[in-house]
Write a structure and sequence with these properties.
The chain is of the alpha+beta class. The protein contains 2 helices and 3 strands. A 3-stranded antiparallel sheet has the order 1-2-3. The longest helix has 21 residues. It starts with a helix and ends in an 8-residue tail after the last helix.
Length: 107
C-alpha cells in the first residue's frame, strides 16, 4: 500500500508544462496495425507489484435502465509511465488552448 500512496503522491506533484521524457525518445515502431480504442475514463488502478500498476479504462454505453461503464482496455504500466502520459496530455492541452484549437490534428 505504501507504493500506491507514493504513486498517488507522484501524480499529484506540480509538474511544469514542458515536453515529457516521452517526447525525448524516438517514435515507437508499429510493425503491425494497432487498433485505436475509444476511452472515456479511467477505472480501477490496481498495484500488481512494486512500481507496476494495472490500469483499467472504460467507455459508457446505454444499458437497459442506466448508463453502463464497460471496460475497453487494461494496461500494465510503471508509475513513471503514468506520470509521463499525464505530462504529455497536459502539455498538449495547454498548447491547444494557447493556439485556440478545438482538438488535436490527426497524425
Amino acid at each position: 500500500m505504501a507504493n500506491a500512496n507514493a504513486f498517488a503522491g507522484k501524480l499529484m506533484e506540480e509538474i511544469p508544462l514542458s515536453y515529457s521524457a516521452m517526447a525525448d525518445r524516438c517514435d515507437p515502431l508499429e510493425p503491425a496495425v494497432i487498433l485505436d480504442t475509444f476511452v472515456q475514463g479511467v477505472g480501477r488502478a490496481e498495484e500488481v507489484s512494486p512500481s507496476l500498476f494495472r490500469v483499467s479504462y472504460f467507455a459508457s454505453q446505454r444499458g437497459h435502465d442506466c448508463q453502463e461503464q464497460v471496460c475497453v482496455a487494461k494496461f500494465i504500466v510503471t508509475a513513471d509511465t503514468t506520470v509521463a502520459m499525464a505530462n504529455a496530455t497536459r502539455a498538449r492541452e495547454a498548447s491547444r488552448r494557447l493556439l485556440g484549437e478545438s482538438h488535436s490534428p490527426m497524425n
